[in-house]
Amino acid sequence: MKIATLIIRTLMGAIFLCTSISYFVLSNPEPVSTGDFKAFQVGLIASTYLMPLAKTVEFLCGLSFVSGKFTTLANIIIFPVIINILLINYFLNPHDLPIAIAVFAGNVFLIYSHWHNYEGLFKMNG
């Protein structure tokens, strides 16, 4: 379990670091999109703050996953971003859905592997 956790954590960290760094450095050209996904993408870019915010969160969580520091916190912080990636790909860009499912499954696995850190969040006081 420890080896699987290390591998998945490192791979997810590498994915988030690569995508966020390429966004900020603009080393990779944006893939051509069409239809509803293009309209959605134009809206995200027009908001001017949402994409830099999401990519900053991805960068910080990627650093956390690669370094192994604050992984429990990074799992929770990145979860809404991953849910949005999954739903955007499901509804607007099914071509990339397998990658989104893999990242979602990796995050769920990391939460499961660190579940002892989250148990206190779900205990009822009373």
TrEMBL record:
It is a multi-pass membrane protein. The keyword Transmembrane applies. This is DoxX family membrane protein. The keyword Protein transport does not apply. The chain crosses the membrane at residues 7-26, 73-91, 97-115. GO terms for cellular component: membrane. It is found in: Membrane. Keywords: Membrane, Transmembrane, Transmembrane helix. InterPro entries: DoxX (IPR032808).
